[in-house]
TrEMBL record, chain A:
Belongs to the succinate dehydrogenase/fumarate reductase iron-sulfur protein family. It comes from the Bacteria. This is Fumarate reductase iron-sulfur subunit. It comes from Paraconexibacter algicola. It holds the Pfam family Fer2_3. Its cofactor is [4Fe-4S] cluster; [3Fe-4S] cluster; [2Fe-2S] cluster.
UniProtKB/TrEMBL annotation, chain B:
This is succinate dehydrogenase. It comes from the Bacteria. Belongs to the FAD-dependent oxidoreductase 2 family. FRD/SDH subfamily. It is an enzyme of class 1 (oxidoreductase). FAD binds at residues 10-15, 33-48, 210, 366, 382-383.
Length: 373, 564
């Protein structure tokens, strides 16, 4: 980004809605003059200050920390104060910057949505406070340094709702607990001071709208301005629930995942026809003969039939496993082996990064020297 | 008409801490905020919170550093309370869930901060305020059956009865435009600071002196209002803050000659001298032509000397701010900064329990002046201030409520406030726009009521503020609606800012010496004989505020020359 470019004109196309008027939403345009690296929020504020003070937008910090200004800009959710005008313009099809309220939440006025009705309700769903281990120590809980740095990634969530705005699962299932709330759940499940991790995980795994309801669409990872990567946190919750706490949930979420992994490991590619029976009956070839699998399969028959009739599925291709060259299967297995043999878990965490050579340097040594002089 | 034993206005750290303390004492509590609580400005606090938690540290050392930092204007009894109660407060935060950074032994890690003689700043990367604020909000959600939350409600006035006791407030539901009278046995003001009076400022757009002026208009004196902190490292570009944590981790300040100029001004503490000292040093370098950047108005902050891994782990937000708002990778190159308005040491005069001279009215946090910061606040002492005095006022107000009956309020103030809002909405578009007046105020204050001040500049600033007050009476807005009419609230906030600004200017004119954040080029020395006292400003109708003094409490530390 070049901060020295001179000011230029930007046209903002703002979606307006005035509940007082009783009229439908409409588009409103204003042209503002700012340097290209200024934010869309600064653009909105200039329009408000100069032309129309009635434009409704929540904002406070201007620096991507308070989480007030979540909106959709040219079809992508994000913070208005964290999106450069120039960058927004690049994504525009017609040379104008479109600003709309976030999705998946009811609009109150203009760009302001009702976060209580959706976002905060879901946050409340995950028992969002620490249930501390007892006895409470006299001083601090003594915990591993890295574990605190680890939960700091989810602590960094500013509750802006950008991830909620475009969550694909939530669109089809408004009951889904959703990315932000599940990231918040990880903040406690990952916190060694919490006494109820097992219960929390059980609850999230058993909930039909819980951790197994995410479709890995990455939308929340893309949307999040703070690198919280909610989907990653959801995957970690699943791993803890399934592998660490052996929670065999009634949604078959864990078995489905195990079956998925086994099939890919065996054949190098997924074999769809095997996936469903195994998810229901157990992660082996015999899975499909388990009574439970039978019952579930029968109940799934209408969907399967429909899919076949509409030519979404070709029975022949679906039933025969995919064939891929032997060396490719071998390569896939090697990946599994390498990762599986690692002692430490490789967690994608924002704060645990850096060059190894830096590790050897004393941390902030320069300070120590100076504060004693 | 909602009524509660304790009503808290403001849901930043001070307000939320007060609410939890009052709820724990077993009384009915309401907390009100014009933005959702987690959007409060406390969320922006980055660097950390001071407390002598280390076994090798002593709260008295913390207290002495604070007294010295205050340039001997802080009240030492209050400072003793704050510093001695700090370790327990930090442990409490840790127990309820704040994810404080640990050292390799699993204990709280501490970082260095300006003006401190040892490392005593606990932190969560550089999102300390956010981490604490969100954890307190978790507790409010947990205690939702005992604490009523009024989120997105805007307080317009405090209500006083005929005896001058505070009995509640009038507030507007921002979502609907409905006005309501809130009755309470005790009201705690926790509505934060006033940074928007200056342009630029590190403060959020909502820091508009609401509580300071509401109390002032109710007759409470404002104390130390001339003491405005300019933070040494705000982005040249837009005034955003680069946390002192950066210098705490070892970053250097450099002038155009590549010189670590702090050697000249504070040879012992260097970049980690008190904020007033560092800001003055920077401004001197800039004024004497050794600034950097396009018109020489900046200074380099060099964070590349901090190990990269450490920067990424402990200064993550600053990496992002550099990248997103200045286009600079701070792990690779220095970033352009300058001193910028950051904090108001002064505010509503209170005692160590948060009580103001008006019975039933408490104040805590940045809105208040206890005074623990005196002429200059040490970095990471503000979060501490909000929590300690938030808690104390919550506890005290709850106790007081237990022996009282619920007062009754009529609708007089509500009708007045409603009429005022109606009048603003109905103004013809002949005057100036609210945004224009706010802009002019900010620019003038940042020019004349800044790091260096003098009589002529302050006089000029005062004249401008008086004129803007007149113009504000006919300033017009566009929004005529009821739902989320932010426009009309902006006009009310402008009124708050103008009143508070006048108190700042008048107090700065009054103090004819240099102490802490007040540096008068026409009176460059500290003058303990005449000026080791607090300046208070009180409302005087529409006229210039009246001035009176109160003594500085000294317990164990006699004034001495301040050197870093
Ligand atoms: C960028 C930045 C970084 C900082 N870093 C640090 C740090 O590292 N360490 C440190 O100790 N200090 C730091 N500070 C200072 C510190 O953050 C603040 O002084 C402190 O958080 C103020 O808290 P508060 O609770 O008093 O007010 P705020 O957090 O500002 O809360 C004010 C509350 O009052 C409400 N309110 C205001 N007016 C009204 C009204 N009319 N009606 C209803 N509600 C109203 C608001 O909605 C809000 O909830 C920093 C400050 C800034 C600007
Ligand atoms: S990855 Fe999962 S949680 Fe994230 S947006 Fe997609 S479905 Fe929602
Ligand atoms: S996870 Fe990210 S996008 Fe979602 S609410 Fe938190 S900060 Fe916003
Ligand atoms: S204004 Fe605070 S996040 Fe954008």
């Amino acid at each position: 980004m070049d901060t020295r470019k001179p000011a230029q004109d930007f046209t903002l196309r703002i979606r307006r809605y005035d509940p007082d008027s009783g009229e439908a939403p409409y588009w409103d345009e204003h042209t503002v003059t700012l340097e290209p690296h200024r934010s869309v929020l600064e653009g909105l504020l200039q329009a408000k200050a100069k032309y129309d003070g009635s434009i409704g937008v929540r904002c406070s910090c201007r620096a991507a920390i308070c989480g007030s200004c979540g909106v959709r800009i040219n079809d992508k959710p994000g913070l208005a104060c964290h999106t450069h005008l120039e960058e927004a313009l690049k994504r525009s099809k017609d040379g104008k910057i479109t600003v709309e309220p976030m999705g998946n939440m009811p609009v109150i006025k203009d760009l302001i949505v009702d976060m209580d009705a959706v976002h905060w309700k879901k946050i409340n769903r995950v028992t969002p406070w620490l249930i501390g281990k007892t006895p409470v120590p006299e001083r601090e809980y003594v915990v591993d340094r890295v574990s605190m740095v680890d939960v700091t990634q989810t602590m960094a969530c500013i509750q802006c709702g950008a991830c909620v705005s475009d969550c694909l699962s939530m669109e089809v299932d408004p009951g889904f607990i959703g990315p932000a709330a599940l990231a918040k759940a990880y903040r406690f499940v990952g916190d060694p001071r919490d006494a109820e991790q097992q219960q929390r995980l059980k609850d999230l795994a058993e909930d039909p709208n819980g951790i197994y309801n995410c479709t890995h669409c990455f939308k929340c990872v893309e949307a999040c301005p703070k690198g919280v990567a909610p989907m990653n946190q959801i995957m970690r919750l699943r791993r803890r629930a399934g592998s660490d706490h052996h929670i065999d949930d009634r949604n078959n979420g864990h078995r489905h995942e195990a079956a998925f992994v086994t099939l890919v490991k065996q054949g190098g590619l997924l074999h769809e026809a095997e996936l469903l029976p195994r998810s229901y009956g157990g992660d082996s070839w015999f899975g499909k003969f388990a009574p439970k699998a039978g019952a579930e399969l029968v109940s799934s028959l209408p969907v399967i039939t429909k899919a076949v009739l509409r030519r979404k599925v070709n029975p022949k291709l679906a039933l025969v496993p995919h064939k891929i060259p032997k060396q490719d299967v071998k390569a896939v297995r090697e990946i599994f082996d390498t990762i599986g043999s690692r002692e430490e878990r490789y967690e994608l965490n924002l704060y645990v990064v850096g060059d190894d050579k830096d590790l050897e340097q004393p941390v902030a040594g320069a300070v120590e020297d100076r504060s004693t002089t | 008409m909602p009524s509660h034993d304790v009503l808290i206005i403001g849901a930043g750290l001070a307000g939320q801490r007060a609410a939890l303390a009052a709820a724990q004492a077993g009384v009915t509590v309401a907390i009100m905020s014009k933005v959702h609580p987690v959007r409060s400005h406390s969320v922006a606090a980055a660097g950390g919170i001071n407390a002598a938690v280390s076994v090798t540290d002593d709260w008295r050392s913390h207290a002495y550093d604070t007294v010295k930092g205050s340039d001997f204007l802080g009240d030492q009894d209050a400072i003793e309370v704050m510093c001695s109660e700090a370790p327990a407060e930090v442990m409490h935060l840790e127990h309820i869930g704040v994810t404080f950074h640990r050292n390799d032994d699993g204990l709280l890690d501490l970082r260095a901060f300006g003006g401190a003689s040892v490392k005593r700043t606990a932190y969560v990367a550089d999102i300390t305020g956010q981490a604490i604020l969100h954890v307190l909000y978790e507790q409010l959600m947990k205690h939702s059956d005992t604490v009523d939350r009024y989120e997105e409600w805007f307080t317009t006035s405090l209500i006083l009865d005929d005896e001058g006791t505070c009995t509640g407030c009038v507030a507007r539901n921002i979502r609907t435009g409905d006005m309501e009278v809130f009755t309470a046995k005790n009201v705690i003001l926790a509505s934060g600071g006033a940074g928007q009076i200056w342009k630029p400022s590190t403060n959020a757009l909502i820091c508009t002196a609401d509580g300071i002026t509401q109390a002032y208009r109710a007759g409470v004196p404002l104390m130390d209002m001339e003491m405005i902190q300019y933070h040494p490292t705000t982005l040249l570009e837009n005034g955003f803050l680069i946390t002192e944590g950066a210098r705490g981790e070892g970053a250097h300040l450099l002038n155009s000659e590549g010189e670590r100029f702090m050697e000249k001004y504070a040879p012992n503490k260097m970049e980690l001298a008190s904020r007033d000292v560092v800001s003055r040093a920077e401004q001197t370098e800039i004024n004497e032509g050794r600034g950097v950047g396009e018109d020489g108005a900046g200074i380099y902050l060099d964070i590349t000397v901090v190990p990269k891994k450490r920067t990424l782990e402990a200064l993550r937000e600053i990496v992002n701010i550099g990248k997103d708002f200045a286009g600079v990778d701070i792990t690779k190159e220095p970033i352009l900064i300058r001193p910028g308005q950051h904090y108001i040491m002064g505010g509503v005069k209170t005692d160590v329990d948060g009580a103001t001279p008006v019975p039933g009215l408490y104040a805590a946090g940045e809105v208040a002046c206890v005074s623990v910061h005196g002429g200059n606040r040490l970095g990471a002492n503000s979060l501490l201030d909000t929590l300690i005095f938030g808690r104390r006022s919550g506890e005290h107000a709850a106790e007081r409520a237990k022996s009282m009956t619920m007062p009754t309020n009529d609708r007089t103030q509500l009708l007045k406030d409603e009429a005022e809002i109606k009048e603003i909405i109905g103004r013809p578009k002949t005057g100036r726009r609210v945004s224009e007046i706010k802009d002019e105020l900010g620019t003038v204050m940042n020019r004349y009521v800044a790091v260096f001040r003098d009589e002529a500049g302050l006089q000029h600033a005062h004249e401008v503020v008086r004129r803007l007050k007149e113009e504000a009476k006919s300033a017009y807005i566009d929004d005529q609606g009821t739902v989320f009419n932010q426009d009309v609230l902006g006009a009310i906030e402008l009124g708050y800012m103008l009143d508070a600004a006048e108190c700042c200017v008048v107090a700065a004119l009054e103090r004819k010496e240099s102490r802490g954040a007040q540096f008068r080029t026409d009176f460059p020395e500290r003058n303990d004989d005449e000026w080791q006292k607090h300046i208070n400003t009180s409302i005087n109708g529409d006229d210039v505020p009246t001035i009176h003094y109160s003594p500085v409490t000294i317990t164990q530390w006699q004034p001495e020359e301040r050197k870093y």
